[in-house]
């Protein structure tokens, strides 16, 4: 159920990849190759519902409608470009990088500067502003919380070396489609009509590198390269003999399918428990291991609650120390009659700790020694058990569920200091 929105969004993205090839002049074979090249990307982003899914879709909408604008000259497409930008901002602020690249190109290139004096360009800007405005107002009222979180995450990633593989990641993410992407970039740079589309890759590539971004941030820039590469390849194959054209096209399609199979092997939850594929995923795919055991985790918290005395349960709170635990408790907790979880992590902190000061607190994701500094008494009420022997944060690093009493500081004072990001 939770993967369905991601699957739908990525299905649309795949269609847009094929349509990009059509806008660039590609016929059906080129459209199919572009779609197949983008398929591994979409397969990964379909495997879990995250903001990256809709970031990819928003980039694709923006790029596709820009391509249509360049092909047709119909400036009304700026409204659609603005809508894509607006949706992208609501998904992930990194869309600012391709948008900035687009604006610089429009201002710098004489052939595009005329759009600054046309109403449809500004209608597109207005469309993006209207979509983004509620989010901006929320940010302003909440001390730009998301910007603080993004800043924290960026510093953490740089400190932990997560951005060190930025350039090699581009090879890892494109795999056998890398030659197609390179051909597409060269083709766009050589095209007088469609050169603008190259900025959706080149600009973010440079900016992410300078800002020490992570390698996967650039993934949404590849569908347009695949589309352009597919069209360029098809143009070259037209000059080949029929048998050679079919053979080369089959080799390219086979390479795309190999990429898709490799991605499916690594990312899709399709392996029997204990199999070689399962064991590899559990060791190398942190998203996969973090998807397992949430209903059981919440059930264990409910069991701890059930063992408390009526007095303890009367002024009870459940404090989760990471957003995964807080989200699971918010989703599955109502079925057990659990109170809404409280957490200092990300936007959970802004929701506060409830209408009254809790006296008894079930703490998840914490350590006994740390919590004894915060509460007058704590004890281990249960140890977290994740099915199938999965080793994740809950089962390895914070494997206990604690029951604590009497916060040492007044709740308002303690809560004001509890904001954390992750």
Global morphology: globular
**Number of β-strand runs:** 4
Helix proportion range: 55-70%
Q: Could you name the ranges where pLDDT drops below 50 across 5 or more consecutive residues?
A: none
Number of helices: 21
Q: Structurally, how many domains make up the residues?
A: 2
Pfam families: PMT_2
GO molecular function, one term: pentosyltransferase activity
Subcellular location: Cell membrane
InterPro entries: LipidA_mod_glycosyltrf_83, RgtA/B/C-like
Short synopsis of the structure:
With 422 residues, the chain is of the alpha+beta class. It contains 21 helices and four strands.
Description:
The chain has helices at 4-23, 28-46, 51-72, 77-91, 96-108, 110-113, 119-141, 145-159, 166-174, 178-190, 199-210, 222-237, 242-267, 276-284, 286-289, 294-306, 310-314, 323-332, 368-374, 393-397, 411-416, and strands at 316-320, 360-364, 375-383, 400-407. The protein is an alpha+beta fold and 422 residues long. The chain has 2 domains: 4-267, no CATH class; 293-416, no CATH class. A 4-stranded mixed β-sheet has the order 1-2-4-3. α18 (323-332) links the parallel β1 and β2. The longest helix has 26 residues, at 242-267. It is globular.
